[in-house]
Amino acid sequence: MTVHETTQAPPSGDGLHADERYVVRDPRQVRALLQALIDQRATITALPDGCGQSFPSAVLELGEDSLVLDGSPVAAFNRRAAGAGFLLCFAQVDRVQLRFRVERPRQQERGGYVAFMASLPGEVHHLQRRELYRLTTSLDDAPWVRVPDPAGGEPLRWRAADVSAGGIALLLPTEQTVFALEQLYTGCALELPDTPAITLSLRVRSLVAIRRADGTGQLRAGLRFEDLPRGADATIQRHIFNVERRRNAKMSGNG
């Protein structure tokens, strides 16, 4: 497996937000989205300087022109965050992904816990709709992904949470150390039911901490397909179409 590591995230306004249609810059709308993170007690995935290992956080307070983010119980993460030029943050509001960065976080001690104060972000990437239809999978029709083990062992294998013609999402333990944001993983395979495995590369586009109904945490990894062989995208779309057709037939009583 070859891993290409991103050592620095792109500066604000220069590649961080790939589609201007989904960038919110109005200060009132930015505040409303951040307030929604507080109201929904949303977990944030914070990435110091946009690279390396992330840690879970949350928006604790909103000031007139500042915000306060929760720190980590792990001192090493707090040291990295305190020394970072910015924190790249990922979260979800109403199942819609948000992405923003806060500049020059300042560490504070608040009643025995660590927090970080920073200026309000100037913009928030608010992905209002998906470019490609995504199929939520079930146990009997889910694709699987194989990724070479970085330690040289047997390939790692995960069931997909959803799939589209352009990528796939996995639900992983929060302590996973395999995937890092924007890294490219080669020599992977996508296994579709009744179809030979498709060899491809996977690029990590998002890592978002989520909380299940039972209170346990998971990490949702969004992976983009790269280096697809010829005809593979049509094979993936055909799988999605066939699954949807079977589900619709079952719902109508014809399956």
From TrEMBL:
GO biological process, one term: regulation of bacterial-type flagellum-dependent cell motility by regulation of motor speed
Name of this chain's protein: Flagellar brake protein YcgR
Cellular compartments per GO CC: bacterial-type flagellum basal body
HAMAP family tied to this protein: YcgR
InterPro entries according to UniProt: PilZ_domain, Split_barrel_FMN-bd, T3SS_YcgR, T3SS_YcgR_PilZN
Encoding gene (name): ycgR
Organism phylogeny: Bacteria, Pseudomonadati, Pseudomonadota, Gammaproteobacteria, Lysobacterales
Record family assignment: Belongs to the YcgR family.
Spans annotated as Disordered: 1-20
Function: Acts as a flagellar brake, regulating swimming and swarming in a bis-(3'-5') cyclic diguanylic acid (c-di-GMP)-dependent manner. Binds 1 c-di-GMP dimer per subunit. Increasing levels of c-di-GMP lead to decreased motility.
Subcellular location: Bacterial flagellum basal body
Ranges of compositional bias, category Polar residues: 1-10
